[in-house]
Prior knowledge:
The complex is a heterodimer of chains A (107) and B (414).
Chain A: E1 3-5, E2 12-14, E3 19-23, H1 35-42, E4 51-57, E5 65-71, E6 77-82, H2 90-99
Antiparallel strand pairs in A: 1-2, 3-4, 4-5, 5-6
Chain B: H1 6-14, E1 32-38, H2 42-55, E2 60-63, E3 79-80, H3 87-101, H4 103-107, E4 118-122, H5 125-141, E5 146-148, H6 150-156, E6 171-175, E7 179-180, H7 183-196, E8 200-202, E9 207-213, E10 216-222, E11 225-234, H8 240-247, E12 253-265, E13 273-276, E14 281-285, E15 290-301, H9 309-322, E16 331-342, E17 348-351, E18 357-361, H10 371-384, H11 397-400, H12 406-409
Helix pairs in contact in B: 2-7, 2-10, 3-10
The complex binds flavin-adenine dinucleotide and zinc ion.
Zinc ion (ZN) binds at residues 6, 8-9, 58, 61-62, 64 of chain A.
GO cellular component, one term (chain B): cytoplasm
EC number (chain B): 1.5.3.24
GO molecular function (chain B): nucleotide binding; sarcosine oxidase activity
Amino acid sequence: MLTFECPYCGVQADETELSPGGEAHLTRHGPESSDEAFEGYLFLRENPRGVHFERWRHSFGCGKWFLAARCTMTLEVFGTYAAQTTEPPQDILDKITGRRPGWRRLG
Amino acid sequence: MRRYSVFAIAREAMRHHLGWERAWASPEPKKRYDVIIVGAGGHGLATAYWLGKNHGITNVAVIEKGWLGGGNTGRNTTIIRSNYLQDPSAAIYEKARSLYETMSQDLNYNVMFSPRGVMMLAQTQHEVRGYLRTAHANALQGVTTEFIGPERVKELCPIINIDGPRYPVLGALWQARAGTARHDAVAWGYARACSDMGMDIIQQCEVTGIRREGGRVAGIDTTKGAIDCDKLGLVVAGHSGHLAEMAGFRLPIESVALQALVSEPIKPCMDVVVMANTVHGYMSQSDKGEMVIGGGADGFNNYTQRGSFHHVQETVRALVETFPMVSRLKMLRWWGGIVDMTGDRSPILSKTPVDGVFVNCGWGTGGFKAIPGSGWAMAELMAKGTSPLADPFSMTRFREGRFIDESVAAGVAH
Ligand SMILES: Cc1cc2nc3c(=O)[nH]c(=O)nc-3n(C[C@H](O)[C@H](O)[C@H](O)COP(=O)(O)OP(=O)(O)OC[C@H]3O[C@@H](n4cnc5c(N)ncnc54)[C@H](O)[C@@H]3O)c2cc1C
Ligand SMILES: [Zn+2]
């Protein structure tokens, strides 16, 4: 079972307390954007075999959205961080490269 | 290829079964093929089969990283139905269902197609209206379905509890010629027929790169060396995004785990397939007597072929409510597969930005039933560049806002 530490309330929340929310750090596009950009925002996802940055909501806890880095091949969780960030924080990136030497972020 | 028949059985019975041939050859790859299909699941094998049968293209290789049928084709719960709402879906799924009717004869291989009937329970007013609408749409599409009342549900499947505490059964969408088939046999039957047409099925060979020259496909790199080709079909379900990346384009696909489980074998107790979509569980009984059970997909990206336990608990809870007698059953096996989900929950059969590369993916939680029709359409698309059954499912639909929205329409997977 997946367990994440909620960065707001600090509890170790197991999966049944949480709702998954898909890929994190998407660039939003609105009415003025090109069809390409809009398609990318709405439908195209990295879907990596490996490190995935994603959104989770602590639905049956504090109710807040947070972000996490997790491996889709092993389900290892590298860490969680606040939703109010546009890029993964350096300490999370360091933790990932510590565990996966040579890893580079896609995209 | 020696045909299977009652005479063959009698002959082999007389000589200790020493005369059975291998069903398909396992050759080393050649330097070049007209068409390479990546993925020896049902959809890849069916594509190869119809390329040969309908279009006379037999210089074909099917490349598989594991063993054939070892992906979702060998992991699914084998429900076959065609009662979809949208016209393009009804067309391709009904084509597939009708091809299942004669598949054993066509392939000379018993795929055990069993049109025992599939019942989708309506347990809320919303579902009643939804299924009535689908039944009307199906009438216009020429797909035979009907909406039946609770008494008929009980008659067709006596072990159902129609007045359950939370969600009494208000009726059902019933498709009498829907049912199940033996999943491995579908893969094996196609493999045997492809091999017989001179195609090469190459197992234990992973595709690691896709070579391009001037915007066109030139060949692939594999763990058994480089192979050239004229056209390339990517038919790898949950791994489609990975293969697309090798070819330099992106797909609107996310990969998640879907789980299933079977019980210990018991005496025959239900001879239809029942899907209960509100409570989210479905069940049928295999010929061995095991109850075959499935539910919904997990919600997060996953390549481990291992899902979350709480989803299984939810599914089983739902089934105990609908079929109280299953509460005493022991479960024998439990597994997962990685399914490829698109934004509108409909598949992709499409040309791609790379000339000569075609994709067939996105069948998600419900593509077993589509195998023969999907192969038929994909073969036509690859041979002619266009196919009436495949064209609505092109990947450009996401840019054009031309969705085939079965996620809302069918309200369910499988
Ligand atoms: C638990 C479960 C229950 C299901 N229940 C139903 C059901 O009741 N009814 C229904 O209609 N559908 C059902 N489905 C869905 C159905 O199984 C799939 O849609 C269908 O089998 C997909 O077939 P495929 O040929 O596209 O993929 P697969 O059978 O997965 O084949 C893809 C193949 O590609 C190979 N591959 C991947 N990457 C590479 C590479 N790099 N090089 C070479 N080969 C590669 C894989 O090894 C695999 O064998 C279910 C699925 C699951 C997991
Ligand atoms: Zn919290």
